[in-house]
Amino acid sequence: MSESPTPRSLKAQITRTSLVLAAAALLRDEGPKAVTYRKVAKWAGAASSSVGYYFDSVTELLHEAGMHNIQLWAQRAEKVADLSDKLEPEECRARITELLTRACLPDDSVVPAAHYAQLIGAADSEVVTEAYRKGRVLLDAAIARILNRAGVPMTPRIVVALVDGAAVASISEGYHVREMADKLLGEAIGATEAYAKATRE
What is the Cα 117 distance to its own chain's centre? Predict the structure, then answer.
């Protein structure tokens, strides 16, 4: 992938950033196929020619949009991890399911069904799935911090799988996503800790 022109002026930097933000929003709302030069320019309030100037291809734009989105999700999880670091381990343990669901799920301004639909839709673009895969490392690291602070013997990948599974089941069956994820995490953590205790005895 060849490098696009590096914006040097403040105005150029703002324009390029606005194009990435517009592409990221389109990616979240409508999926990879919606990210076109014309549509991105319209959402950003810019000329269509500006997209071609700053990005060599839609593929490059999609990659940056995907990286922006996963960084947003990682930052959300990192804020929760920062909060957990300020709690005593006992309090963190008492609030563990709440903290984990806050770290893994989008906030209440996002419709859960739309969030998961766009994650599945990412499969339409190899560069988006690559960006999400790379960014997952940051998300896993934040979740690991929460688990370590609470002393819960579980891996971040298992936590994410449980939350995502609970969310999809809740969406398809008409249940409250956050409540179902909280309940399922609580059951899984209890079972994991019981097993760990039994193997030590």
Answer: 13
Q: Which residues contact 61 (CB under 8 A, 6 or more apart)?
A: 19, 20, 23, 35, 40, 51, 55
Spatial distance between the Cα atoms of 101 and 117, rounded to a whole number of angstroms = 18
Give residue-wise pLDDT tens across range 72-106: 889 999 999 999 999 999 999 999 999 999 999 98
Picking from 40, 43, 27, 35, the residue whose alpha carbon sits closest to that of residue 118 is: 27
Neighbours of 144 (CB within 10 A): 16
Which of 80, 91, 52 lies closest to 159 in space, CA to CA? 80
pLDDT of residue 118: 82
Of 55, 54, 62, which is closest to residue 35 (Cα–Cα)? 62
Q: Which residues contact 153 (CB under 8 A, 6 or more apart)?
A: 192, 193, 196
> In the prediction, which pLDDT does 119 show?
86
Enumerate the H helices of 55-125 as residue ranges.
58-86, 89-94, 96-104, 112-121
CB 50 within 8 A of CB 22: no
What φ, ψ does residue 159 adopt, rounded to 5°?
-60, -50
